[in-house]
Amino acid sequence: MSATPHNKNEMPIFDLLGRYAYALFELALEEGDLEGRTAEVEGLAGAINESQDLRALLEDQSQSIKTKQQALEQVGALVNFSPTLRRFIALVIEKSRSAELGAIAETFLKIAALHNNIVPIDVASAAPLNPSQEAKLQALCVEHFGDAALVQFSVDPTLLAGVKLNLPGRVIDASWAEKFAQLNENFKTHFSTP
Q1: How confident is the model over 13-41, as a mean pLDDT?
Q2: Which domain covers residue 110, as residue numbers?
Q3: Last residue of a domain, one of 63, 94, 114
Q4: Number of structural domains, the chain?
Q5: Which H helix or E strand runs over 170?
């Protein structure tokens, strides 16, 4: 997602995946069921995140569109997706965007959260945080964003150490991976040989 609306009547500017997510968001508003659609999309995102087999199928370009649509139709039947969400998923797959379906779902959830004046904050750490560390970061986010802060924690070993906060329209990266990248850039700039 590249931008968020400043008010609920203003159309934001999105990348391609954001446009898919925003189209589903607008449809949910038109149907008057943003809450229900959000719950469905949370189920979709969860299914994709939790199932290695489903992700592999969606990312496999050798699999047919029909095979992918049938697999997602089965998931939809299990978790009771609405006809609207089923048609949306079928369209995304038909447009050869099945590998991005999880990212589209996550973007939809961020748009819906912002619409509801919730600030989604993803906190990634190199290793799992203990409850005390999570509580301190949660308190810090609430201090800066108020009760609208919705903090989710995840682990990303590629960070090496430290944390990375993903906020709407902004990333705060205090990880060693970022520090090493900056150090590498400085060496290239100041010590490169002609």
Answers
A1: 87
A2: 16-114
A3: 114
A4: 2
A5: strand 170-175
